[in-house]
Structures are given as structure tokens and as C-alpha cells.
Amino acid sequence: MFYRETGEFRTSYPNDSQTFPIKFDRRLYYIMLFAAFGVIPFLINDYWANAVFVPFLIWAMAALGLNLLTGYCGQISLGTGGFMAVGAYACYKLMTAFPEMSIILCIMFAGVITALVGILFGLPSLRIKGFYLAVATLAAQFFLVWLFNKVPWFYNYSSSGQISAPERTVLGVAVTGSFTEAWAKYLFCLTMVFVFAWVARNLTRGAIGRSWMAIRDMDIAAEIIGVNPMKAKLSAFALSSFYIGMAGAMFFANYLGAIEATEAFGINQSFLVLFMIIIGGLGSIAGSFIGAAFLVLMPVLLKNILVGQMGWNTAIATHLEFIIIGGLIVLVLIVEPHGMAQLWRVAKEKLRLWPFPHAS
Amino acid sequence: MKFKKMIFAMLIAGFAAPAAMADLFVPWLAYRTGPYSPGGIPVADGFSDYMTLLNERDGGIGGEMIVVEECETAYNTQKGVECYEATKGKGALVYSPLSTGITYQLIPKATADGIPIHSMGYGRTAAADGTVFSHVFNFPAHYWDGASIAVNHILDLNEGDIKGKKIVLVYHNSAYGKEPIATLELLADKYEYELMLVPVDHPGQEQKAQWLQIRREKPDYILMWGWGVMNSVAINEAANIRFPMENFIGVWWSGSEADVLPAADRSNGYKALAINRLGVDYPAMDDMKKYVLDAGLAAGNGDQVGTVLYMRGVYGALLITEAIRVAQKMHGVTDITPEMMRDGLENLVITEELMTELGFPNFGPSFAVTCENHGGEGIGYVQQWNAKDQEWTIISEAIQSEKEIIDKQIADASAAYAEENNIQRRCL
Questions:
Q1: Which of A60, A222, B236, B379 is the most buried (most CB within 10 A)?
Q2: Tally of CA atoms within 13 A in the half-sphere of B123 that contains its CB
């Protein structure tokens, strides 16, 4: 009824190849953008920012990065935590070495440094695939975290081995440090994530994204039709690490403010991001957001419902949380092995045909 | 539609933090799950039970009931931040994170929000300097005191000469475990012992490699900065390499029943530091039995009563509630704010008379918090495990840490922090 291509006439190629070809989708997208940029910043408080929105946005950024590599290019990586650590420590070194440098530049340079490290650890992907590659990236995870613990230069020789973010401003408003207002922190992260999600979406639609997908679907065939596997794989590693590095930098600078590598960027985080994209949907930008929302927000929600509203004992509630989230993950994967983004895709197909399910 | 609205409302309410309430609201960042729960459970139980005792026996403090709300962190920094944000809006008076990592995280946030932190014997040691850290308190003793007390004990055993002895520090590879290193290095220069560092990564269930290394090095003494399951694993491994237990000394977070029981008889003689005395032979603990335990109001399973860490929790609650009393007296109101609570903590004076009056004679050291000194006097004890009777006993007199070395170290560290964060010094 309302979800139709009928009546939409496109008169130019850009019009025809837009991301949201259906009016309903487009409107929904604009409404969400308006809410995110125009409404939430006025309502947000510290709790909503620090417990809900900022972690969601940052994890979505990390999931986006891993999705470029795993979802689009088909290379499995378990080094996400390590690459996030590179981003965080690079950002810290830049922030302390060049105090006058803009925080936006710091975060982007941290991404660039992570991209270089990512290319280095992506080299094995030229020879090995699948599980073997996963093990090679696992080595990156352990090596990088060990490195940031072992070499005091990375944490400026502080006695505790922690790094902490000094205050930095954007247009005169603090976005890192302890005096950051909730809305500033939120808007900063939102803008970063929005801009780079937009870039990612368009990357995947262009030549480079298509070469990744060709490699993912069948690397020998891709090579035969002229896709350079080295270029495709290494660019996937570089761009993926760029995103993950920025996520790590924001995780450190904007979200937590002080970090220590072992705890903040352990192997758990690598798995967490991998689960996000598997549950959200491999090879889908929206899937990265859905997956991040599911794994970051669900525990908070369950905790608040079980402890806050039902008044249960915190220990029992925590154990139950594990059970419920584990159960939900299994359920989602059984019902829809392609992730939650696929659910949305199927729903859209159904909507187009509704109310005549057998017409085609 | 109605159903959808209801679900939506529930979701929104599910994320939202509840509103502020009256009473003395004291949040407790607990961890009853995960690899650190052997330490987290008894401390949380002791803390809560003492608060319940005051509510049941005295009707709260100055007529105001105390509300303790636990928030599960699993010793995870990220969850700690979430807990902080979720509880601070309810008028939290003081935070006890029971985690050095979370304390590091909360120090700038809580200071900006004007809420004090009491990190009793943990957290950022430099916070003992009240001129820089206005809202952070780590009395009655901190890690650098602990390191010095342990070395002083070793000095006592060797008649003051430990030149050339080899001391190993086994530590949790985190901000917590790294805290004592600087002090131990300073003391190594002074007493000319040889210090060797052996880190153990979170969560510490696997330590074979570390203990192989230790066995090769044949140290004279081992110090341990461990927490959670790491402690019991380390004690077991020490027993496996037949290291003499009386030369193995843990910090006050590495010396509870849960740590030594898994190694059974082989842990006999293991030592640990203590910041308070042990056992339940105090008049107040009789009240605790009458008003809390027998009334079925105990927190948790009620099976931790009297253990070392349970009494640590009681001690922490006692210090906080006495600070509340001071704050009420200072400001003449009973329903105090976090800012008044801060004043209360800063003007807290614990004397032996006060402890006796509270029903805890000879339980902890006497000390006075001042504007400059938030770290207490730095007095500790050494306790030893007797595997046959299954009990910890204090085997030393009160040991004083080497204040001149530590004070200088604190002054340097806090000056560096002040410079890094542009903090104006107070109390001048």
C-alpha cells in the first residue's frame, strides 16, 4: 500500500542508484537523522549518553569497520580488540605530543596509523584464508595488547600503565575530559559515525566495494576477471582498520577517558564485534548498527528491567542476563542465519507485495 | 496499538535511570559474578550488613535511613561507568568502587560531579594528596603503604638487613598490580635487595609459566598483588613449587579464606597484610547477629560472616557511616548532600574511644583525615593462615610504613597529575 516503487519516476542515473530508492525508506531515514541530530541532543543526560548512546555509536563504528573486512571482503579477523588498542594509544600519543592538534584530526590520524598496522597484519591474507587467517589475526590481538603493556613509551611512563585523555575542544566545546557535557559527547560521536557510515556505504557501492565482494564470493573467479586480490584484500584491511582504529580512539578519548590495554581491548572485544556483525548481518551497513545495538544495549536494558523494575538480586540478574542474551543470539541465528538485517530485507520484500502475497 | 505502546513505554523506562529519592543513598559497585567474585561477594555482604545493622538497631544515622543499592560491575570498567551514571542521579553520597580500574575511571568524573569516592586501601595511591584530589579518599592505608609495610615485615624477619635478598612481586597486570612497583623500586635502592617483577594477566587462572620462572630464580621472598581467582591459583602454584609459605606475603586483597582454602594444608603459613583486625569477637558483631543475621536480613547467602573480607566490608561501611555522622554534625542537617559528605570524609577522626563506643574496640587504627592528607596514617598488620584451625591470625604489632619516602612519592605523583589536568591546589 504505502511501501511501493509505483509512482516514483526517476529521471537521472544518480536518482536511480540512490541508497534508499523507496520514498518510505527515505522518509524513515530522514526522520531518524532528524531525531538523532535535532531531538536527542536536547533531551540527553549523562546516563543516556554514557550508558546508552555513546557506547552504541562507538561499537557501531567498530562493527562497521569489521563488516567492511569480514562482511564485504570475506576475510575473518579476530584482531579487532588489538586494532582498537592501536587507535586508542595512537590517539593518546598524538593528543599528548601535539596538544594544539584538533581532536578530530587526532582521531583520524589514529585511524590512519591503525590502517598501516592493519595492512601489516593483513599481509598473511594474501597467502592464507579462513581459519588460518583468523589465527594470524589472533596473533595481532595478543601481540598488540602485550606491546602496549610492555613498552612504557606508549603510556608516557605513567606508573599505573593507564592512559587518560586530556581535555580537548571542538568549536570551544569540550568533547573529551571530565567536564564534557553529555550532548557534546553524543553529538561529536554521532557526527563522526554518521560521516564515516555514509562514506562506508558509498565505498561499498563503488568499484572498491565491488572488488571486495568479488573476492569474497570467489577469489579465483575475481582474479580471472581482473580484480587484483592483493589490492582488494589490503585495501579492505586498511579501511577496516581505519574504522576500527577510530572507534578505538573514540572509545578511549570520548567514552571512557582512561583506559588500560589488557582490560579495555582484550580478546573479548574482538569476539564482541565479530558477534555484532554476525548477528546484525554480514555485508550490511545497517546490520552493523543493528548488531551493535543488540549486543551493547540489550544487557543494559535487561539489567534495568530485572534489577531496576523487578527488584531482583543483582547477581541472579547478571547470570540471567547471560542466559537470556545467549539464548537470543542462538534464536536469532536459527530463525535468520543471515542476521537481523536480513529480517528487515525480508520484511521489505513482503511489504512490497502486501496485501497480495502471491502476486509477483 | 495499546500493547505496542506498553512495550515502548517499558523499553524507554528500561533504559531510563530512576529519579532521586530522600534518605542517605549509598551505592555499592558490587561484583557477585565473574572471576573476581570470590573477593567481591564477602566485601559486599559485610558492607550491606553493617548498614542494615544501623538501620535496624539505631534507625539509620541521625534518624535518616540508609539505602544501599548494589550495582553489578563484574570488575569491568565499562560496566562500572554505567553503574556510576545510573546511580549518581539518585543522590549518591559516596562511591566505593572496590576496583582500582573503576576508581581511576571515576576520579575525574566524580570530582567534576562533586561526589566523593572512598577507595579504602585501593585505587589511585596519589589521591592521598588532598591538595590535588579534592573528592578522593583512600584512608586508612594505601598501596604504597602496603608495599612499605611488607618490606618492613621482611626487614623485621632479617634483623634489618636484606641486602642482596631476592624479592619477587607477582602482580595482576593492571593499574592495580602496577601500583606498588615504584615504591618497591625506591625501597630496593635503599635496602639493596633485588626486585623481580612477574606480571599475571587478567583473570589469572593460568600461571604455570610465571611460577616456572619463579622456581628458576629461587627468590627469598614473594610479594603478591592479586585479586579474585588469581590469588588461590598463585597460592596453589607456590605450593606446587614447594615455596616456603611463610616467605610468601600477599597484600590485604590477597589474604582471605577463599584464597587459601583451595590449597588445603599446603597453604599453611601463608601471610598477608591487613588494614583491620580480624574475627567476630566484638560487641557490635553480637548486635549484628541479633538484628541482622538472626532476623534473616543478611545480604547474599549469609555464609561469609566473619571472614577477612567480610570484616573489611564492615570496616569500610563503618568509616563511611562515621563520615556521614561528622557531615551531619558539621552542617546541622540530617539529609546531607554529596558535597557535605565530602566535608564529612575530610574531617573524619577515628580514635580508639570512638571505635570502642561503636562496639569495635581495637579493630582498626586511629587516624585523622585532613585537608592535605586523605590517605590516613599508613598503619598495617601482618596476618598468617593457620590451615589446621582454618583461621587467619594477626601475628605482628601495628607496622608503620616509611612515611618520608612515600610522602615524597605521593607529592611527585600528585604534582604530575595536577599539572596534566590543570588542577589548582587546595588547603593553602
A1: A60
A2: 30
Q: What is the distance between the alpha carbons of residues A85 and A138, in angstroms, rounded to a whole number?
A: 14
Residues of chain A contacting residue B14, judged by C-beta atoms under 8 Å apart:
301, 304-305, 308-309
Query: Are B111 and B190 part of one and the same domain?
Result: no
Q: Is residue B385 part of a domain?
A: yes
CATH number of the domain where residue B290 is located:
3.40.50.2300
How close is the nearest chain B Cα to the Cα of A51, in Å? 5
Q: ipTM of the assembly? A: 0.86
Return the ∠ at Cα A271 (arms to A268 and A276), rounded to 5°: 125
Looking at the structure, do residues B148 and B72 belong to the same domain, yes or no?
Answer: no
CA nearest to B133, candidates B102, B156, B163, B112: B112
Task: Report how many domains make up chain B.
Answer: 2
Pair B393, B248 in one domain: yes
* B90 and B72 belong to one structural domain: yes
Q: Chain A: nearest CA to B219, how far in angstroms?
A: 23
The predicted-structure confidence for B385-395, as pLDDT tens digits, reads as follows: 999 999 999 99
Looking at the structure, tell me whether residues B178 and B30 fall in a common domain. Answer: no
Interface contact A97, partner B, CB < 8 A: no
Which chain B residues are closer than 8 Å to A45 by Cβ? 89
Per CB-CB distance under 8 Å, the chain B contacts of A300 are 15, 82
Judge whether B356 lies within some domain: yes
Output the CA torsion A235→A237→A239→A243 (10° steps).
Answer: 180
Whether residue A318 and residue B74 make contact (CB cut-off 8 A), yes or no, is yes
The partner residue sitting opposite A305, judged by closest CB among B14, B78, B88, is: B14
> Which residue range forms the structural domain that includes residue B194?
143-276+381-407
Q: Using the Cα atoms of residue B229, residue B232, residue B235 and residue B237 in order, give the sign of their dihedral.
A: negative
Looking at the fold, whether B147 and B226 belong to one and the same domain comes out as yes
Query: How far off is chain B from A70, nearest CA to CA, in Å?
Result: 26
Looking at the fold, whether B153 and B287 belong to one and the same domain comes out as no
Contacts of A264 in chain B (CB under 8 A): 77-78
A48 shares contact with chain B (CB less than 8 Å): yes
Q: In the structure, what pLDDT confidence band is assigned to residue B4 with cuts at 50, 70 and 90?
A: low
Using pLDDT thresholds of 50, 70 and 90, give the confidence band for residue B11. Answer: low
For residue B112, list chain A residues with Cβ-Cβ distance below 8 A: 178-179
Give the pLDDT confidence score for residue A24 in this predicted structure.
82
Q: Same domain for B26 and B97? A: yes
In chain A, where the domains are located = 1-7+20-41, 44-353
Spatial contact of B395 and B384, defined as CB atoms under 8 Å apart: yes
Contact (CB<8Å) B70/A314: yes
CATH number of A44-353: 1.10.3470
Q: Taking Cα atoms as reference points, which of B9, B77, B57, B94 lies closest to residue B321?
A: B94
Which of A178, A256, A315 is opposite residue B112, by nearest beta carbon?
A178
- Our CA-based measurement puts residue B14 at a distance from the nearest CA of chain A, in whole angstroms, of 5
**Does residue B136 fall inside a structural domain?**
yes
Which of chain A's residues have a Cβ under 8 Å away from the Cβ of B15? Answer: 48, 51-52, 297, 300-301, 304
Cα gap B23→B38, rounded to integer Å: 31
Instruction: Please give the DSSP secondary-structure letter assigned to residue B282.
Output: S
A250 close to A107: Cβ distance less than 8 angstroms: yes
